[in-house]
Amino acid sequence: MSIQLSIIGGFLEAGKTTFIQNLLKSQHCTNSKKTVLICCEQGFEEYRESILKRYNTIRINVNDIHMLDRSFISSIIEEHDPARIFIEYNGTWPIGEFLRIRLPSDCHIYNIFFIANASNFVLYLNNMKSIMTEQISNSDIVILNRDKSLDSVEKTNIKRAIKAVNSKAQAVYFKNDYKILQNNNKDFSAFLLVALLFVLYLVFISVKNTGSAFITIFLSILIQALPFILIGIFISSFLQVFVSDEKIVKVFSRFKWAGFPAAVVLGVFFPVCDCAMAPICSRLAGKGVPLHYVLTFLLSAPVVNPVVIMSTYYAFPNKPEVVLMRVGLGVMIALSVGFIVKFAGVTKEYAVNETVLETPCAGGYIGDFSQEGFIGKLGMLIRHAGMEFFNVGSYIVVGAFVTSLIQMFLSRELFSATGISRYVELLVMLGAAVFMSVCSTSNAFIARGFSYSFPMYGVVCYMVMGPMLDLKNIMMLSAGFKKRFLIELILILIVIAVFIFSIAAAFFS
Amino acid sequence: MKKVNGEVLAQITILLLIAALLTYAVITDKIKYYVNIHIVKYIWFSVTGVIIIAISLSPGLFKPKRRNHILPCVILAIPLLAGIITPAVPADSFGIKANIGQIQHGGDRDLSEAHLKNDNDIVYISDEEYLKWYTDACENPDKYNNKTVRVKGAVLRMDGFGSNEFVPARMSMVCCAADLVPYGFMCKYEDAEMLKYGEWVYVTARIKIEYEPHMKKEMPVLYAVSVIPAHKPENELVSPY
């Protein structure tokens, strides 16, 4: 049987010693094999020799992180032949350093605990952010103790902060009769994913000839979106690294009602594809900019974008009223959503994912966030952009996949159905906006195709709502916003769109 | 020997593969099947961007983490796989390649391309002029009334077309392959039903401006004099800008 190695991390006086003594008691194995306890820190509370003796435990002290290496572990195994090894890890050493060690083959890491004192958890997290996030992000189980002085809200907030750093870790409040949960989600999932990739590979091979149109559409959406996503995440990372939360919130709180027109006008200066908007807006919302401004900006930017206006005019030459309708109704919808969100009093906590909110630099290797100097910050910006790329990237791949699948199976002829009522026409155009929206800069050309079989207000509805409801954009937003909030947002948008465009229909026909 | 962080290794591999595939697509000119030519300059930006990110990740390569989040990398590997495996072809409705020679169109077939070019009354629209002609004819249809033209297009037939109707069209790409739209006029031709979907043809036809029931408006309609097989143009797609 292989030797189980557990690491118990946490700051001085977090209660590591007490926890380990409990661990010795509760998980005492009846066979004659020993337990080795490696202490990297001399705490306030001493181990009771009687307990160590009773549970057949040998204690070894280590004062230098460089002493911990493969040969050291091997020599312990050779000398004591233990069934398990506990390491009381020093709270100031990164756990990543230990993980670099190539362990002897008969020895594996069983569990990594992080013990924390709940009463000063928030204080420590603010002051020792980098070392603490490093340890938590490498932990399997976070044990919180001394929680008597805390109310339930504070307790949940701590749990949330831990989940934000490491979504896979269990956070539990310590009880004496606490049983260690089995750590069973091993590399199995990684194996499953590789198998999935292999299946996909076979699928691609088999559809190589017949399905190549699907794959071309899928890839083209991604190739076309990639530069704009990169621009988006670089701007978002710039905001994160160079602009402090207080500064940006101060700028926005100075506006009162003027914030709404300001958010609309701001969009004119972002002549980028709408794919870039999702990361930027998630970041702005995460930094505490009022949600009603963020949403107004998000929804109006693809409408007032000068490139979009140009391409719309190009697609509908000699029809300036189409351009005017697109801009006018689009801004109206963006502002309505902004007002609704303001009056509904939606809070940041309700709408934004904690991962964006608390600690975006969860990975231990991202390094210290408060690094000084321009070069240091620039490096941080790029590393942060890298993290965000993988976060947002997977969402857009899924979005593009579904969009191109639907484009393949629903041919455009389906959208030329005639003799349907006005409301069904609108709904069909809304459906097209969700599933068949291409970039806001080029959807006017698709819309021209619709204009032969649909009335003008429906076509404008498609153009305006396309960038707002586009499936891949919504997928990207869900990397930063809570899913429930996004669903509510979509419903609000659809209701407003039906309302406004029905009025427009009555007006123009 | 130190352990390697699997997650970072996967991330760097993915980023470098993205850069390599994009560069390959641009150099071999296959990119034109995916995106409009004016997007190419942005692609160089993408390539630079992902390489910079890959370099910035490399210090983390030897800092292992307890848990690796491989899922995003696996998802991003899907388009890479698709890109490596499938050859680039235009994603239009002409997925089926035209096969010249298989089609039998009676006497038309004997007319060689050279023979046709000698006819003086016919306006020849070259591959490069197609877009210009199409947009001009859309905007000033009367200019072309009763003129005879010869244009090249791929056969497009949709549900609801009569047995004598087809559209010789070129696909236009504004931004990417997802927004392909056919550019072409309705053409009346006796044997339209016998044409193979997606094959390239030369259509010699007289243009009449009349009400077109499918599009529900006055527009040019082609009355075919002859339809003969053609080679596909060098650039199958046209780009409005």
| Beta-strand residue percentage of chain A | 5-15%
DSSP, total strands of chain A: 7
The largest sheet of chain B, given as strand count, sense and whether it forms a barrel, is: 5 strands, mixed, barrel
**Number of helical segments with 4 or more residues of chain A:** 23
Mean pLDDT of chain A: 79
The first-level CATH class name of the largest domain in chain B = Mainly Beta
Q: How does the overall form of chain A come out from the CA principal axes?
A: elongated
What's the helical proportion of residues of chain B? 25-40%
CATH topology of the largest domain in chain B: OB fold (Dihydrolipoamide Acetyltransferase, E2P)
Count of domain modules of chain A: 2
Q: How would you state the average pLDDT of chain B, rounded? A: 79
* Most strands sheet of chain A: 7 strands, parallel
Helix-strand sequence of chain B = HHHHEHEEEEEEE
Helix content of chain A: 55-70%
Number of helices of chain B: 5
Oligomeric status: heterodimer
Report the end-to-end length of chain B measured between terminal Cα atoms. Answer: 55 Å
The spatial strand order of the largest sheet of chain A comes to 3-2-4-1-5-6-7
Poorly predicted ranges of chain A (pLDDT <50, ≥5 residues)?
A: 356-368
What does this structure look like?
The complex is a heterodimer of chains A (509) and B (241). By secondary structure, chain A is α/β, with parallel strands linked by helices. Chain A has 2 domains: 3-173, Rossmann fold, CATH 3.40.50.300; 212-508, no CATH class. Chain A is 60% helix and 9% strand. Chain A has 23 helices and 7 strands. In chain A, strands 3-2-4-1-5-6-7 form a 7-stranded parallel β-sheet, sandwiched between helices. In chain A, α7 (152-165) links the parallel β6 and β7. In chain A, α9 (212-242) packs antiparallel against α18. The radius of gyration of chain A is 28 Å and the shape is elongated. Chain A starts with a strand and ends with a helix. With 241 residues, chain B is an alpha/beta fold. Chain B folds into 2 domains: 6-85; 106-238, OB fold (Dihydrolipoamide Acetyltransferase, E2P). Chain B contains 5 helices and 8 strands, in the order ααααβαβββββββ. Chain B has a 5-stranded mixed barrel. In chain B, β3 (165-172) and β4 (181-183) form a beta hairpin. The longest helix of chain B is centred in the N-terminal third of the chain and has 22 residues, at 6-27. The termini of chain B are far apart. The model of chain B is unreliable at 92-118 (pLDDT under 50). At the A-B interface, α4, α8, α9, α18 and α20 of A face α1, α2 and α3 of B.
